[in-house]
């Protein structure tokens, strides 16, 4: 298990290099001059040219990227073009908010999706099953930012129950977490239903029922554990998507997280901050998937033997 974990951590290195290189090249090709953004529109061309030379912006893109990655090895993500503050400081101040939002949304989606998927599978082809699948289809198809705007119009503007922006009180997280959780909940519920349908048709389930066990015991002790294996994969992917997909939701609800920071940085061509955010998202996504893979060994002993 330890050897497998180390190999997965090492495999994170090419993922970070590939993701950051693509983003760095794209932002370098975009319109706008970072030196002009830093100095403002009133700066003279001579001062702009001097700052570009100081920042190394006249060097080829690959040279700039290589210099950035060398600094990253020493824990230096550079300095924000917008504020002049270290990128590490800005990300560290906002990362807890993004993690909190993603975790709350993940808990909401799991708590609602798994029971709905199980009941829909047990009551296959019933009215409840049909309603769950239609709602799940709508949830998967609905953009999170559009749902967020609808929630603001209803609960903030019309009913005035919940705030539509900020993070200074616990009520502020309700709307953005629900808007973020809907698509994840729909996907996990559909995966749980299909996995449960496959499991409850197996021979050992019929054997358990023939022994006189109650339906609840059969589902909890025999069917659910095996059905959770593919569902855990879906949960892991959705949790990673919640972390990286919070960009639009954070922007709609003015949530002070990394997603909103990255959107602002893209608009102002703040390359070090954007690349730093991408690195954090890549690391979080990989860690979540690693945790899910390790949990397989707890759910299914066969997977643990494969890791060994």
TrEMBL record:
SUPFAM superfamilies the UniProt entry points to: MetI-like
Cell location: Cell membrane
Domain of life of the organism encoding this protein: Bacteria
Record bears the keyword Transport: yes
Transmembrane annotation, as ranges: 12-30, 101-122, 134-153, 173-192, 273-299
Residue ranges of every copy of the ABC transmembrane type-1 domain listed in the record: 95-296
Matches recorded under InterPro entries: BPD_transp_1_N (IPR045621), MetI-like (IPR000515), MetI-like_sf (IPR035906)
Membrane topology: Multi-pass membrane protein
Keywords: Cell membrane, Membrane, Transmembrane, Transmembrane helix, Transport
Gene3D superfamilies: MetI-like (1.10.3720.10)
Pfam family, one: BPD_transp_1_N
Family: Belongs to the binding-protein-dependent transport system permease family.
Protein name: ABC transporter permease
Organism of provenance: Pseudoflavonifractor hominis
């Amino acid at each position: 298990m330890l050897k497998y974990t180390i190999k997965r951590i090492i495999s994170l290195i090419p993922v970070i290099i590939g993701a950051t290189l693509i983003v760095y090249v794209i932002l370098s090709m975009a319109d706008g001059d970072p030196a002009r953004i830093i100095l403002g529109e009133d700066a003279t061309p001579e001062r702009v040219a001097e700052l570009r030379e100081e920042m190394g912006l006249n060097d080829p893109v690959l040279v700039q990227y290589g210099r950035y990655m060398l600094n990253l090895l020493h824990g230096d993500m550079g300095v924000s073009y917008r504020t002049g503050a270290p990128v590490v400081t800005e990300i560290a101040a906002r990362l807890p908010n993004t993690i909190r939002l993603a975790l709350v949304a993940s808990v909401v989606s799991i708590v609602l999706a798994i029971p709905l998927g199980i009941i829909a599978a047990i009551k296959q082809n019933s009215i409840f099953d049909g309603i769950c699948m239609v709602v799940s289809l709508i949830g998967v198809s609905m953009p999170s930012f559009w749902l967020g705007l609808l929630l603001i119009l209803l609960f903030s503007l019309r009913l005035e129950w919940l705030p539509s922006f900020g993070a200074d009180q616990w009520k502020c997280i309700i709307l953005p977490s629900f808007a973020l959780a809907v698509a994840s909940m729909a996907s996990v519920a559909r995966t749980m239903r299909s996995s449960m349908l496959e499991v409850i048709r197996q021979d050992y389930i019929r054997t358990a029922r023939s022994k006189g066990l109650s339906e609840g015991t059969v589902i909890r002790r025999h069917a659910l554990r095996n059905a959770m294996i593919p569902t855990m994969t879906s949960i892991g992917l959705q949790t990673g998507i919640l972390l990286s997909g919070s960009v639009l939701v954070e922007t709609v609800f003015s949530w002070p997280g990394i997603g909103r920071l990255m959107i602002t940085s893209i608009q102002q061509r703040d390359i070090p901050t954007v690349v730093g955010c991408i690195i954090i998202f890549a690391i979080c996504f990989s860690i979540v998937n690693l945790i899910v893979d390790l949990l397989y060994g707890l759910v299914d002993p066969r997977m643990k033997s494969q890791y060994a």
